[in-house]
Amino acid sequence: MPARQPVAIDAAKEGVKLGRLDDFLGFRLRRVQNSLSGNFAQAIASYGLRSGEFTTLALVAANPGISQNELAREVGLDKSVMVLIVDDLEKREWAFRGRSKTDRRRHSLSITPAGQAELDAMFAALERTEGIVEQGFSRAELNLLHELLDRMHALCIDAAA
Amino acid sequence: MPARQPVAIDAAKEGVKLGRLDDFLGFRLRRVQNSLSGNFAQAIASYGLRSGEFTTLALVAANPGISQNELAREVGLDKSVMVLIVDDLEKREWAFRGRSKTDRRRHSLSITPAGQAELDAMFAALERTEGIVEQGFSRAELNLLHELLDRMHALCIDAAA
Predict the structure, then answer these.
(1) For every one of its 161 residues, what pLDDT tens digit does chain B have, with 9 covering 90 and above?
(2) Domain count, chain B
(3) Which of B13, B14, B29 to mutate to test the interface with A (most CBs of A within 10 A)?
(4) Integer angstrom CA distances of residue A23 from A38, A104, B94
């Protein structure tokens, strides 16, 4: 190991350089996704939701009776974080925990009419947020982007298997 | 509020439905990005790194003297999480904290030769991981995907401003 330098130079004032990261698709995807979701987060900031809470509520709406473990896996969050999200959704009376008919130890989630109304409002905000960005593209370009991303997702799943 | 139902139905056995999320680009981007980064995470699992640690090291390499706050902002992580990442990079002797010449209260980060060697090895793993997926696309398709994502990123930044 070299001797540690006590003084290092300052980062370039003109902004952070991406270096080799700039060559990788994964980085470009993450950057766009972070920006898009940041714009949406700002649009629904007044709700004061946790990260992942909107997606969780949308999945509960689409899958009545889904379990907390399934939600954690699908949203890509730790089970302990999902418990906090579901607690908050219950406190807001947007969703409720029931008991599974087939396995009584398993909590199953469902959305309330109030939760559905708020979810609809947030989906409208998401449509506006994405709409502003999509205006910069033709319908053909957007379809192509969807197709490329879906093909890539399928290849990722194959590569992982 | 409606009365809470004590028993909810089970989620469909055939898998979780995406519902309205499936119509949104942000969701498709996140899904592909999660899969791609999951494959890479598996490839470098033996290092036992924290989430964001590879990206942090890559940014330190590209920006000698960068501050912890700049890293936190650029990687999109909380400052307290960035402290843990930088602590770990120092413990591994992959990076070292120095004092900024212009602001002595500000820690500035630099990579060590050992850190650079490990970073090169991880970039090689990233090239392999993305290469497997990129084989399913023509060069023209990949260039188009990069161009669409970069245009979208620029539009997101404009929309947020």
Answers:
(1) 333 333 333 333 347 888 999 888 888 888 888 888 888 989 999 999 988 899 999 999 999 999 998 898 888 778 888 999 999 999 999 999 987 666 666 779 999 999 999 999 999 999 999 998 899 999 999 999 989 998 988 888 788 77
(2) 1
(3) B29
(4) 23, 50, 22
Taking CB atoms and an 8 Å limit, are A99 and B6 in contact across chains?
yes
Test the B interface: residue of A1, A17, A20, A32 with most B CBs within 10 Å: A32
Asked whether residue B10 is assigned to any structural domain, the reply reads: no
The shortest C-alpha distance from B2 to chain A (Å) reads 8
**CB–CB of B156 and A7 under 8 A?**
no
What number is the ipTM of this complex?
Answer: 0.76
**Single-letter code of the amino acid located at A49:** L
* Sheet with A95-100, edge to edge strand ranges: A66-67, A107-111, A95-100, B7-8
Q: Which residue of chain A has the CA closest to B16? A: A63
Q: Which of B2, B17, B21 sits opposite A112 (nearest CB)?
A: B2
The answer to whether the predicted template modeling score (pTM) of the entire model surpasses 0.95 is no
Separation between Cα atoms, residue A101 and residue A110, nearest integer Å: 14
Q: Find, in chain A, the residue whose alpha carbon is nearest to that of B105.
A: A7
CATH of the domain at B103: 1.10.10.10
Q: Does A30 fall in a domain? A: yes
Among A138, B26, A127, A70, CA closest to A62: A70
The answer to whether the CB atoms of B16 and A63 lie below 8 A apart is yes
- Residue A26, CA atoms < 13 Å, CB-side half-sphere: 24
Domain housing A134: 23-160
For A79-114, the pLDDT digits (tens) are: 888 999 999 999 999 999 987 666 666 779 999 999
Give the closest of A19, A32, A149 to B156, CB-based: A32
